[in-house]
Amino acid sequence: MRTVDIRVPATSANLGPGFDALGLALSLYDEVEAGLTGERGVEVSVSGEGAGEVDLGERHMVVRAMREAFGRMGVAQPAGIRLRCRNRIPHARGLGSSSAAVCAGLLAARALAEVEWPDDEVFALATEMEGHPDNVAPCLAGGLTVAWSDHAGAPHMVKLAPDQRVRPVVLIPSARLATETARGLLPKDVPHKDASFNAGRAALLIAALTQRPETGLLLAATEDRLHQHYRAPAMPQSAALVERLRAVGVPAVVSGAGPTVLAFSTSDTQDLIAPEVGNDWHIQQMDVDPVGANVQFPETR
Asked: pTM (2 decimals)?
């Protein structure tokens, strides 16, 4: 059986003011070994995050993505699919676990089908399956990404290299929050002054992350008026932690739809984070993943 190994990074979207546009790839990974078999059916094993919880058949997200990819490529569906998933990205915490699964499935299918399927089409299908491009863009490309959709609905991205002094810290709670729940709290319209405020802060954030990762600039650049306070009732502990961290000068935001909190650690703030967190959170220092999803072929089994 020919197999392929896929490694996909966790991601943090929004980064405060960059709602549905900015994303950052993190050095925390899910690994998937995917193979096609001559026997009918799907065989999935999962260790780590999601073990004992996720579907182990056709509804598994990686399997669904593979099926979608084979169909989009015009390749006949294989008789059987075998997956070995080693998951480290927490589920329903705002770290892009579903985007990672989608990207892993699409890339596995492309590699196993051995056909030419352009990267922009992979990105387009990943966005279609996820509903928005902010997590799938950094998952596929790595680094810091700016994603948007054109008037025809096609997604695009630009990859940027963050300054090497940017050190993300993720603060992961035990509680979960579904993205759909968090999105359901957002209003259909926002005041013009809030949209203008966020546009300026998002532009400043790009400059701060790529050129001048100074604490003062990052603190100002991560201010948001479009989504975090609307979602706060669904994750009061996360909202309170963001407020405490920012009050002592730590640039902190809700990661994606939450409830994980993302903080940027600098020489000025690295000793300020832990005292504000408490025992109910898992603190994990990370690097920015520079390359995104990785595909490798092991020896034929």
From this structure: 0.94
